[in-house]
Each structure stands twice: as structure tokens, then as C-alpha cells.
Amino acid sequence: MATEEKLQRSLFNEVMVPCYAPMDIIPVRGQGSRLWDQQQREYIDFAGGIAVSCLGHCHPVMVTALTEQAQKLWHLSNVMTNEPALRLADKLTQLTFADKVFFANSGAEANEAALKLARRYAVDNFSADKDQIIAFHHGFHGRTFFTVTVGGQSTYSDGFGPKPQAVTHLPYNDLAAIAELMSDKTCAVMMEPLQGEGGIISPTIEFVQGVRELCDKHHALLIFDEVQTGNGRTGDLFAYQGLGVTPDILTTAKSLGGGFPVAAMLTTTALAAHLKVGTHGSTYGGNPLACAVAEAVINTISQPAVLAGVKQREQWFREGLMQINRRYPIFSEIRGKGLLLGAVLCPQWQGRARDILVAAGKDGVMVLVAGTDVVRFTPSLVIDKKDIDEGMQRLEAAISTLYNAHSEL
């Protein structure tokens, strides 16, 4: 058994499966948008656990919800329902297009449910031959074999043997390509309404609207993967609400629990009817602890003042990054929406996004990458202005060091 003295980064290599390469930093405490490591060194968090910690660390409404529920009920099988799950589902249907909710543990599970529902709908209403799923290059939909195949990054899906079939990938924002390919064999189109892992790529309104029209024409379902964009991340509660296009199925996770694992698939009554008793399930889906926390999160971030605050904070981030760029021009553009932003590296800096992540960590600010050429920012939706300003100062110090070293080469 590991002792306190042995709980260092080196222990990871001894006891953990090596599918991650974590930094040397081991945070032990968080409050708001600040973290402290084992040496009590402070960090400002611009990463938010990859768009998860939407209210920062240890927010009072989350702590209260968890501790209160912990004194009542932790788990039931799905042979029974529970009050937190009912309240959360009711809230989500009130706030969205959806009539019905399926709860799961992760974004991959929610997406798996969405894809299975789409295939079942096609089988029940048309035939087993209506099985084509269209997705997009650079998309990301999870790590199960089905979802990683639908995701448009072969790096993640290759090397595991035969893949699920009838999945086709097309360029994002290319309406002509999808119009040419779609047919009555298409059962669903799955897309992120703003690509996250793929580089923070926003869709055009024309593209999203065109995809919706093509789905209607070919009796295909439109699935929006809002695992990363949902729950206030773009300044709307869900990104589809800012695009004027309603999907048939929507998936959400990450920020839904603010750090507690929980996910949901949202859909209509007519579509939900195709997942009859026994066709799908999840042991922990609808867990009372998870749903109690998620209810507190949704109640908070759905407030108009919080959503408006996301759009204000987007401007603060853009201004801070452009100020840095005026002094150290390494970014070609800042793209994204709300607090899902990406700083795209100039040609001479491409491939060095992780270098910036590591340097930023050394200077006390946590950022992310989206591929090798984009520095990604997904902070708390309620991050204080002073934390943004100080975080930008620390980020500038890190970039300054890299920039000066680069200039001397």
C-alpha cells in the first residue's frame, strides 16, 4: 500500500495503465478557479478539467447538494427510480426541446445510447439496411469502440481490430459533401455544434441548417453531441439554442455534473419509445448522488445572469489573449464561442501547443490543447475577473520565456 510519502508522480508509472501522460503537478485542493498542489503552490485554472468544472472547484451549491444527498440515499438499481433523477429529468425537459431523458455516467455512454437509438429507430421504422451514420473529420464522440469509430480521428480508433460498420466521415462545414453522400440509407448524422477536440471549429449557420434539412429529407436523425458545448459553455444553455436548429437527439455530460460523473441523452417521446424495456441500460445511470449534484449545477447555470456572464467572460478572455499576442505574436486567431475558446498557433509555432501547456503550468496557470496547434481554454463559467487577469499575466510570462528562447534559435 502506498504511503503518503510515496504518493508522487512516479507512482503513476508503477500502478496505472499507461494510456495517459500526466504532468508532474498533483493538485490536492481547489477553490473557485484556483488549485494548490502537494507543495501548496497555487495555480489558476483555465482548463476546468476539460470543460467539466463549470462552477469551479468546491462550489457551495454543489457541496451542499452532495452532502445533503449523501445523508439520504446513494444508489438504487434501475428496478426503481429516485427523486433526484426525476427532478433532474424534469428540469432538463423544461429547459430544452426534449420530452424524455436517459441518464448515464459519461459522454461516451450518452453517445453510445444516442447511436443505438438511431439504429433501432431505423430498424423499427424502415429496415436494417438503413444503417449509415455520417460523422465528421476531427470530431470526437468518446472512447467506446462505437463512439470512437464515429469520431473522426483515426489515431484514436485504429489498432483495435475490425470497426463497427456503415460509418462515413466527411469534412465539417462542407454542406455539398454531405448533400452528395446522404441517401435514404442514412439513419443518422452525428455532429458537434462546435468541434472541441478537433481544434475549436465553429459551424456556419448555413451548414447546420442545411444538415437539418437533409436529415428531414432522408428521414435521418440529427444527433448533436453537446458533451463539451452543453450546460452553458457557449453562453446558451445548449449550443443548439444559439444556432436556431433543433436536433432529434442531444447528448450532454462534462459540465452537467460540474465534476461529478453524470451524463444524459435527451430526445422526444416518439423516438424514446423505440428503447423499450430491456433494450438499453446503465448500472449507475440516474444515480441519486450524481443527479442531486447535476440538479444544483443546472439550477445555477441556467440563470440568465450566469449565461450572460459567460458571454462577458468570453470578451475578457479574447482581450487578454490579444494583448499577449500583440507583444508576443504566436497566435493567428482566437476562435470558438463562450468559454470554449482556442488560440490557433501561427505557422512558425505550429506543433508547439503542448509546449505552451507545460510552460504555463510551470508559471502557475493551467490550460489545455486541442490537437498540436491550438491552445484551448475551458474555464469555470463563473471565473472572477481578477482570476482571468492574473491568469493572463502568468500565461504571458510562460509565452515570453518560450518566445525569447525561440527568437534566439
Outline the structure in words.
The protein is α/β, with parallel strands linked by helices. Helices cover 39% and strands 17% of the residues. The protein has 14 helices and 15 strands. The strands form three sheets. Strands 4-10-9-8-7-5-6 form a seven-stranded mixed beta sheet, sandwiched between helices. A four-stranded mixed beta sheet has the order 1-2-3-13. A four-stranded antiparallel beta sheet has the order 11-12-15-14. β2 and β3 form a beta hairpin. α13 crosses α14. The termini are far apart. The mean pLDDT is 95.
Secondary-structure blueprint:
Elements: H1 9-15, E1 27-31, E2 34-37, E3 42-45, H2 48-51, H3 60-70, H4 83-95, E4 100-104, H5 107-125, E5 132-136, H6 145-150, H7 154-157, E6 167-170, H8 175-181, E7 186-191, H9 205-217, E8 221-225, E9 249-252, E10 263-267, H10 269-272, H11 288-301, H12 304-327, E11 331-337, E12 340-345, H13 353-362, E13 365-366, E14 368-369, E15 374-377, H14 385-408
Parallel strand pairs: 3-13, 5-6, 5-7, 7-8, 8-9
Antiparallel strand pairs: 1-2, 2-3, 4-10, 9-10, 11-12, 12-15, 14-15
Keywords:
single chain; alpha/beta; 14 helices; globular; 15 strands; 7-stranded mixed beta sheet; 4-stranded mixed beta sheet; about 400 residues; about 40% helix
What does this entry show, briefly?
By secondary structure, the protein is α/β, with parallel strands linked by helices. Helix content is 39%, strand content 17%. Helix 4 runs parallel beside helix 11.
